[in-house]
């Protein structure tokens, strides 16, 4: 079960529930995830009907990138606690 949680948190394609993703902005933990890039995760959540993606990762450069017409951003791991604290406080 822990493996499934990690895969879900990292937004691996075989672990996400379309009903939970659809219509939401999805936060993906990319720390220690060398299997999927930001572009991969965009494709995964977009196919499931997400409205946007926040990808927490230090793997990719700090250079602004264009992800097409899908709203997505990269957040460094040093800032993830602040974002996750906010999300958890608004539930």
TrEMBL record:
<dbReference type="Pfam" id="PF02225">
    <property type="entry name" value="PA"/>
</dbReference>
<dbReference type="InterPro" id="IPR003137">
    <property type="entry name" value="PA_domain"/>
</dbReference>
<feature type="domain" description="PA">
    <location>
        <begin position="17"/>
        <end position="76"/>
    </location>
</feature>
<protein>
    <recommendedName>
        <fullName>PA domain-containing protein</fullName>
    </recommendedName>
</protein>
């Amino acid at each position: 079960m822990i493996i499934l949680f990690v895969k879900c948190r990292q937004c691996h394609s075989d672990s996400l529930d379309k009903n939970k993703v659809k219509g939401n902005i999805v936060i993906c933990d990319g720390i220690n995830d060398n299997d999927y890039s930001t572009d991969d995760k965009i494709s995964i959540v977009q196919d499931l009907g997400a409205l946007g993606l926040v990808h927490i990762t230090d793997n990719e450069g700090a250079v602004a990138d264009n992800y097409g017409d899908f709203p997505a951003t990269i957040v460094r791991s040093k800032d993830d606690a602040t974002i996750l604290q906010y999300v958890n406080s608004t539930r």
